Design the sequence.
């Protein structure tokens, strides 16, 4: 049986009103002014009520499926393996290649670029920055390593094989995180704001930028960056969360909650926060660590169970 249309309901409305009146113990003649007024008023009020009920179905973007914005999926983790990490290293950038981690460390007088053997945590190669520089994010680009500094508006390009300084470059504002997808001629740079800058990999000049957002909410404090299978993973400073970001739209595609990854007993200094993401694209291994952490963790992402 098909439901009656709104046109059917309105067409016989006077008859229905009269039937209801009879059920209540009195008649509407439909001829006198009073009865006509009752019929007209009831009809008008029902029409308004019908339109108010139906209105949300016809408003753009307000269908029942869109009334509640879809939240990005959330993930927790499973530790696959734990590796040693120098607990004095104030990790600002991390990258992986051919069995080694490349790490940029910070703090004035302690900043460096290092090559670290993953299995043992041994530093096999190192170059220190001048004391006036506070080292920040790094990335690997072909046979070069690129490193940012925090507030000096200066970056460094090194020969990857021997860490020989090839050149410097400059940029406006602060430098935080840095990554590349390894395919295009672009670098992606964070500066603590919700914006990610896109740099030309040859000139290291800014080409454009985009805003990272979760729905309508801009996400700032984006720190260390890493490309993982077409997405940008970003540490959010002073939190245990990693944002999974679309490099095309800036939309947050998911959240990774790493709460409990490192035992609280190791966080002896206020600055010992989660920071550092590296990815082995060949073996699909994801590594994370933090500033002044004693360990690097290989983790597997696990979808959070909805409550």
Sequence:
């Amino acid at each position: 049986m098909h439901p009656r249309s709104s046109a059917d309901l309105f067409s016989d409305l006077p008859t229905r009103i009269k039937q209801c009146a009879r059920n209540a113990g009195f008649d509407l003649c439909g001829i006198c002014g009073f009865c006509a007024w009752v019929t007209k008023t009831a009809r008008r009020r029902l029409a308004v009520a019908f339109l108010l009920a139906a209105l949300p179905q016809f408003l753009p973007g307000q269908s029942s499926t869109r009334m509640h914005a879809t939240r990005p999926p959330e993930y927790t983790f499973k530790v696959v393996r734990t590796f040693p990490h120098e607990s004095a290293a104030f990790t600002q950038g991390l990258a992986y290649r051919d069995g080694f981690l490349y790490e940029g460390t910070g703090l004035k007088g302690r900043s460096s670029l290092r090559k670290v053997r993953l299995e043992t945590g041994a530093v096999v190669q190192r170059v220190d920055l001048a004391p006036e520089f506070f080292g920040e994010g790094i990335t690997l680009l072909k046979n070069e390593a690129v490193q940012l500094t925090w507030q000096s508006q200066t970056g460094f390009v090194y020969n990857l094989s021997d860490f020989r300084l090839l050149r410097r470059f400059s940029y406006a504002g602060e430098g935080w995180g840095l990554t590349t997808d390894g395919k295009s001629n672009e670098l992606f740079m964070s500066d603590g704001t919700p914006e990610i800058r896109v740099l030309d990999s040859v000139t290291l000049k800014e080409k454009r930028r985009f805003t990272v957002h979760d729905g309508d909410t801009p996400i700032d404090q984006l720190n260390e960056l890493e490309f993982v299978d077409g997405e940008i993973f970003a540490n959010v400073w002073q939190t245990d969360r990693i944002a999974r970001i679309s490099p095309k739209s800036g939309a947050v595609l998911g959240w990774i909650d790493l709460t409990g990854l490192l035992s609280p007993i190791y966080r002896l200094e206020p600055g010992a926060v989660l920071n550092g993401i590296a990815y082995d694209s060949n073996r699909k291994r994801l590594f994370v660590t933090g500033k002044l952490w004693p360990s690097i963790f290989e983790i597997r992402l696990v979808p959070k169970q909805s409550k």
Observations:
- Residues 33-58 form the longest helix (26 residues).
- The radius of gyration is 31 Å.
